[in-house]
Amino acid sequence: MQGKHGEIKWPKLVANKLGKSLGSYRWAANCGSTEILTQVPQACNYKKDTLKYKLFVRTWNVGGIAPTDDLKIEDWPDPCENPCDFYVLGFQETVPLSARNVLGPESTRISMKWNSLIRAALNRTILNSKKNQELKVGERERQKVYPVKDSDSRDSIPFKCIISKQMVGIFISVWARADLFPYIRNQNVSCVGSGIMGCLGNKGSVSIRFCLHGTSFCFVCCHLASGGKEGDEMHRNSDVEEILSRTSFPRGPSLHFPRKILDHDRIIWLGDLNYRISMPEAMTRFLVDKKDWNTLLENDQLKTEISEGRVFEGWQEGIIEFAPTYKYYPKLDKYYGCDQGRKGEKKRAPAWCDRIIWNGKGLKQNQYSRGESRLSDHRPVHAIFTAEVDALRNSKAYESFFLSNRYDHLKKYKSL
Question: Interior CA angle at 317 toward 315 and 323, to 5°?
Answer without folding.
Answer: 150
